[in-house]
């Protein structure tokens, strides 16, 4: 295992950094670096810029638009994107459903969906969770009954991220009642414009509209939109979840946020000393930095194992737990660092539309703190990840 970067890696890092400096639009960079909310147009704009460069789906096979980079290069690319402040590429299409379509989809499905995912013609959402079926996902109840060449789908999905923007949803449905709840599930690709679909907002702690309930009332879905075999959807669903968890560690973004936190805490307070000179606060920041360095080394070990053609396996759960704990601690310390400035909670601040800003840098941080409570829940809660680790790594 070699964790150092070669000269070629460093040259690659420079190529990526130079391109980002020249091509990342200043307004998007400003929003990302200042924790301001992005809208659909802004996410799509950046997606299309990367797609035009051929860098939007580095992990894909070259025949579908992948870059052919090795695992270290992909890691460097993500690191540089985070440092530069690029909007994230929505995972639902490129990193979640696309690998499933490539591995289990028909040739026709690949030819139809993959180019549309690549250039963001379709915005995807994930229809897994239901009321009562989150951690215990296999207990899901949304039904799909065969009617000729279609399924008729009835049920409810919940927590569906950004479904209000979605053109397509990948969705788990029950096609058969079996004794083992993991059997009898199928994996459908559903056009969100089909009659019978209703998307209702759920407003989060930070008052943002990020998640939804999706109701399906006699929704007609062609059988041709099923991935793989009927009743075997659980296999495809699990394959997708492995891809979801590896991306959640977000080390690059946390490194950027740590630098931001230090800058905040170095500011001179009226009549006082910078908070970073307080020994207790400085110790918390130092501890966080050590945790983050350790996480980065772990990510590099996993990346290096991937390079050696061993899959990430249950290590993905370790990365998810540690990565999200660090992200949450960063937002806690940011709020501590800005003290009373954490109070403003105005939409104008959050969307960067106000010039009457008490402190433009500090204003969105309370909302950012609230928003990040989600990270230990989604992608499979951290308690569930601990169960996976205890079974798969510790053999308990
Ligand atoms: C912001 C956000 C976005 C989301 N986006 C999506 C999305 O786009 N699509 C989608 O399908 N889903 C999405 N989810 C849903 C997410 O996957 C679930 O919330 C998550 O799996 C937990 O399920 P639950 O909310 O039903 O909680 P529950 O499963 O009811 O769990 C409640 C608590 O009990 C704990 N618990 C449950 N079972 C066990 C156990 N066996 N051992 C130990 N502890 C346990 C959990 O850790 C948790 O603390 C999103 C969630 C959030 C918060």
What labels would you give this structure?
396 residues; alpha+beta; Butyryl-CoA Dehydrogenase, subunit A, domain 2; Butyryl-CoA Dehydrogenase, subunit A, domain 3; 3 domains; four-stranded mixed sheet; 13 helices; 8 strands; 46% helix; 14% strand; globular; binds flavin-adenine dinucleotide
Verbal overview:
It contains 13 helices and 8 strands. The strands form 2 sheets. Strands 1-4-5-8 form a 4-stranded mixed β-sheet. It folds into 3 domains: 7-89, no CATH class; 123-231, Butyryl-CoA Dehydrogenase, subunit A, domain 2, CATH 2.40.110.10; 249-392, Butyryl-CoA Dehydrogenase, subunit A, domain 3, CATH 1.20.140.10. α1 (7-23) runs parallel beside α4. The protein has helices at residues 7-23, 26-33, 40-53, 71-84, 91-104, 107-118, 233-246, 251-265, 279-307, 315-338, 347-350, 365-371, 382-392, and strands spanning 124-127, 143-147, 150-158, 168-174, 185-191, 197-203, 209-222, 226-227. The structure holds flavin-adenine dinucleotide. The site of flavin-adenine dinucleotide has 18 residues, from β1 and α13.
Blueprint (SSEs and pairs):
Layout: H1 7-23, H2 26-33, H3 40-53, H4 71-84, H5 91-104, H6 107-118, E1 124-127, E2 143-147, E3 150-158, E4 168-174, E5 185-191, E6 197-203, E7 209-222, E8 226-227, H7 233-246, H8 251-265, H9 279-307, H10 315-338, H11 347-350, H12 365-371, H13 382-392
Parallel strand pairs: 1-4
Antiparallel strand pairs: 2-3, 3-7, 4-5, 5-8, 6-7
